[in-house]
Amino acid sequence: MAEEKKTNDYPKYYKEEEAYFPYIDNLNEDVNKQVLEAAQSAIRMFNIPQTQDGRELAASINKVVDEILRTGEFPKEYYDNDITLVAVELGCLYGYALMMGYGWQWRKIGKSPDELVFSFAVVSPDDNWVNPCGVYLGKILTGKNYGIDGKNDNTCLLVYNMIEDHIKKQPARKLTVLW
Predict the structure, then answer these.
(1) Full domain range(s) for residue 27
(2) Phi and psi for 81 in degrees, rounded to 5?
(3) Residue 27 phi/psi, 5° resolution?
(4) Of the ranges 66-70, 74-78, 155-159, which one carries the lowest mean pLDDT score?
(5) Helix (H, G, I), strand (E, B) or coil at 48
């Protein structure tokens, strides 16, 4: 699994006109450990092959999500059939795919240290783009990731593949959500 790169450049504070979220920082050790454990749990629960290739990992996650959407089923080990926990764990794993493929890192983002919007999300190295992976997978798995046809779309692999071209562009503001 890709390793989190801690830098001394954080926390950062952006002006409102510069970024959608003015505050960004590294995750603390406890949260970082929980994110890694959630990703490892998803690998075990869904028998996802270990890989160091982000695109392969995103493709595996895409297949798992397709199967859940098709059947409505996921491992019984998820207590109380909790689709939210499934989304968080697969989301954490998806974040690692973005780390491996594009060098993104886990960060916490919000208005201030006390007012977080995303307690964990992956962010591009230049802070231009952010994907709150657990929220993103939650939208897909609960049928709320609407495409232009008004239907729920599993866009895991599509978004992963689009990032390569997207990150070359400068968004209007930093920390633009990409999903």
Answers:
(1) 19-177
(2) 50, 50
(3) -75, 150
(4) 74-78
(5) coil
pLDDT digits (tens, 9 = 90+) for 30-51: 999 999 999 999 999 999 999 9
| Phi, psi at 15, each rounded to 5° | -70, 150
Place of tokens 């998806």: 94
Looking up tokens 């397709």 gives 66
Which CATH number covers residue 39? 1.20.120
In a domain, 139, yes or no: yes
- The CA angle 56-45-2, to the nearest 5 degrees, is 45
Which residues are paired to 116 by β-bridges? 110
Q: What is the domain count for the chain?
A: 1
Contact in structure between 174 and 17 (CB atoms under 8 Å): no
- CB atoms < 10 A from the CB of 47, how many? 9
Over residues 91-132, the pLDDT tens digits come to: 999 999 999 999 999 999 999 999 999 999 999 999 999 999
